[in-house]
């Protein structure tokens, strides 16, 4: 990972059609783009790394965000019959933090203070989210964050559209015990999310009568795994739980197979491994392994068929869709629906009004109907497990019947702890200790 001296890129991307604006040079603050009727555009920050060790994933998040914004501005896709936000176009202000946590912090300040964006769509790793969180909380601005994460957080300045622990980990560990065995070897990249996620998964495994036979971490961006693979051979686990991210994913899968360990010998259950990484490494290295996600490209809904077709039409037929990409798409429509609600109610687009309008938003997403939970600002999402096939796509071997209510705190570690924002602007002490088991709840719409 680069140091703080690595230069990031600030680039204003031209919105399509009536909201198009010229490209700004690095360091420039772009002018607002007028809509067809002369209205100013609504500035929205887009903050994903398109260079560096995490670019393999974050570029796809940016692409999905661009697709959603174009559909909103053009009145196509889920926004058919409309155009913009009550006639105002969304103007993208795009920054590239270059996979550098310090630059996420600096660029979030710039987007808020200099570019005056209404909100920001962005971040992938928990390290980048943690880097910018103090900025959004201090300045009382909103971040829409699209990635599954370790939980244990409940900010009124973040809308979380990726999975909470109970929407990814809670179902995957029992599946591993039932189908593979009780001995798990845990690996991950060496930062917040993999360590905390594995801590939760290990607790779930032990609670289920299993045993942790290994727990290893590699520096972010590591592509050499022979030492860890030798430890796996010695430990003889029934399965591997992988929380490696970025460029480390293809390297590990390839080296594991080169070492003679196939999915039939020791299957991998992964959280960060998506269609994107599998396409990059070659599906022959992932075939027979598993991932736990809310969405796979193979989800059978009319909305997903349209999403995949529209994404490929825009970015190329060779491209694939994935779970974090879908979450980035979802949150852009949550944001747009909230902005539209403010416009219809003649409310100024302040943080307070946008926050209140986003709570409770529903969207017919590619994965199925989802909802922004007004209690904790996380999202009702499906929980699914996919087995990777020779074509690089997933056979869905497990799915919940509907979207699951998010619980930000792992109940395996923090029994009875939940997050409740009793009012939209509640910015302190949202944690509630119920001291009672928290039941699984589902959205009442498929």
Structure description:
The chain is α/β, with parallel strands linked by helices. It has two domains: 9-164 and 302-380, Rossmann fold; 166-294 and 383-404, Response regulator (Rossmann fold). It has eleven helices and 18 strands. The strands form four sheets. It has a seven-stranded mixed β-sheet with strand order 8-7-9-10-11-15-16, sandwiched between helices. A six-stranded mixed β-sheet has the order 1-3-2-4-5-6, with helices on both faces. Strands 12-13-14 form a three-stranded antiparallel β-sheet, covered by helices on one side. Helix 2 (101-113) runs parallel beside helix 3 (126-139), helix 4 (169-179) packs across helix 5 and helix 7 crosses helix 8. The longest helix is centred in the last third of the chain and has 22 residues, at 323-344. The chain is globular, with a radius of gyration of 21 Å. The protein starts with 8 loop residues before the first strand and ends in a 13-residue tail after the last strand. The model is unreliable at 1-38 (pLDDT under 50). Residues 18-36 have a biased composition (Low complexity). InterPro entries: AmiC_PBP1, Peripla_BP_I. GO terms for molecular function: amide binding. This is ABC-type branched-chain amino acid transport system, periplasmic component. It comes from Chamaesiphon minutus (strain ATCC 27169 / PCC 6605).
